[in-house]
Write a structure and sequence with these properties.
Layout: H1 2-43, H2 46-53, H3 55-58, H4 72-83, E1 91-95, E2 102-109, H5 116-119, E3 120-128, E4 135-140, H6 145-155, H7 163-185, H8 190-193, H9 207-237, H10 239-250, H11 274-285, E5 291-295, E6 309-314, E7 323-328, E8 335-339, H12 346-359, H13 364-399
Antiparallel strand pairs: 1-2, 1-5, 2-3, 3-4, 5-6, 6-7, 7-8
Length: 400
């Protein structure tokens, strides 16, 4: 009898402490969880919405298709003259589908400034008809609603130093809340389990009870996807999370670093057609891919000078998981290295897939729909949770 009584008390004590943790952690980070969840949810269908709104710039007229594309250098010069920006064109994305236009990119960022708008100097996307050189559309991605949502989600629009912490720490707390929430939801016995999986509102008129059930049930059903979203988000925020995954999947604490191959000093004169040579070889090697991106300004996104010419090949539209990396000599256009996706180790493949898993695109349109619903649920949890606390607080106040 004593053993049985002791067991019940232990479970009760666990739930008691879980309830306290769940409450105070929720009150401390609830507003941040709400903002991060809402911004992430609204971002889920970014590709579908943008592709629909920009279809006239993306898809070319039938009259132009079939002609020989102009050289990348000539197209870059046309874009430079037309836009007259103080920053150089940084990259071009070339679709394998000949019905689609080229996308030239302006991007420059520094570490100075306390917020996103100060750090990002320029981020523009220019759609160009590769057969005629006509500029079809220019989009200022820096102020695009989806890009702003992305950086709210990433770091509340704070700079790259503080942003990961302002969202990362509340995300860790949110993980603890999800675990304590499952403990609180967990039924005591088989009889209690019957009413835990769906709403029993036939005889319930009290909004407080309905709100409590919403918080409990929706929280439980969303908790498993929410945990996945939190962990994949922390993978971006903290190197030690990424390193732990890397070690677990490959036995090494770091991903293999790309070898920088310096071009021979004898190759002084740069071949003006180097980008076209790289593009032609890429199209031949990865003819069934979706698109590929060529760096044009000799720098990576962090502003570091590149010793060679990297080309990233994307296997599918709207996904980053299937990436192939080609390295060309930046003077002659000679292929120096080919790193196809299927040759990557498990940790590298996961690193490429983490963004797609986080956004739901890894699982296709069905995954995005599920992620969207889970995101809406996570957005509602701080609201319904606050109302549960407020209702109990008012009830206690009346008793006093």
């Amino acid at each position: 009898m004593r053993k049985k009584h002791h067991h019940k008390k232990k479970v009760s004590s666990t739930k008691k402490w879980s309830a306290k943790l769940h409450l105070w952690l929720g009150l401390s980070v609830g507003i941040i969880v709400f903002i991060v969840s809402l911004s992430g949810t609204l971002y889920v269908f970014k590709d579908e919405i943008q592709n629909s709104l920009r279809k006239e710039a993306i898809y070319l007229k039938k009259d132009d298709i079939g002609k020989k594309p102009l050289s990348i250098n000539l197209l870059r010069e046309k874009v430079t003259l037309e836009l007259n920006e103080k920053y150089p064109v940084s990259a071009v994305e070339i679709p394998l589908d000949k019905n689609k236009s080229y996308q030239f990119e302006y991007y420059d960022k520094s570490k100075k400034g306390w917020n996103y708008f100060q750090q990002v100097h320029i981020n523009k996307l220019v759609y160009v008809n590769q057969y005629t050189g006509q500029i079809l559309a220019v989009y200022d991605e820096k102020y695009d609603v989806f890009n702003i949502l992305k950086y709210i989600h990433w770091g509340l629009l704070l700079n790259s130093e503080w942003g990961p912490y302002t969202v990362g720490i509340p995300t860790v707390i949110f993980v603890i809340m999800l675990i304590t929430g499952i403990i609180l939801w967990w039924p005591k016995n088989k009889n209690a389990r019957k009413g835990r999986f769906w709403f029993n509102w036939e005889n319930v008129k009290n909004w407080k009870r309905k709100n409590y059930d919403l918080h409990n049930l929706l929280g439980f059903y969303a908790s498993f996807i929410a945990l996945l979203l939190s962990i994949t988000g922390l993978y971006f925020a903290y190197p030690y999370v990424k390193n732990t995954f890397t070690f677990a999947l490959s036995g090494s604490w770091e991903l293999p670093k790309e070898k920088e191959r310096k071009s021979p000093d004898s190759l002084i004169a740069k071949n003006e057609a180097v980008f076209d040579l790289a593009a032609a070889q890429t199209q031949k090697l990865y003819a069934k891919s979706s698109s590929f991106r060529i760096t044009l300004n000799g720098k990576n996104k962090k502003g570091k000078e590149l010793k060679n010419l990297p080309v990233t090949v994307y296997g599918m539209d709207g996904r980053y998981s299937e990436r192939n990396i080609l390295t060309f000599d930046k003077y002659s256009g000679k292929l120096l290295a080919n790193k196809p996706h299927h040759n990557l180790n498990t940790a590298e493949k996961y690193s490429n897939a983490n963004y797609d898993i986080h956004t739901g695109s890894y699982f296709g349109i069905i995954g995005k729909v599920i992620w969207f619903i889970a995101g809406l649920t996570c957005t509602s949890l701080p609201v319904t949770g606050f109302l549960v606390w407020w209702g109990k607080r008012k009830k206690k106040g009346k008793k006093i």
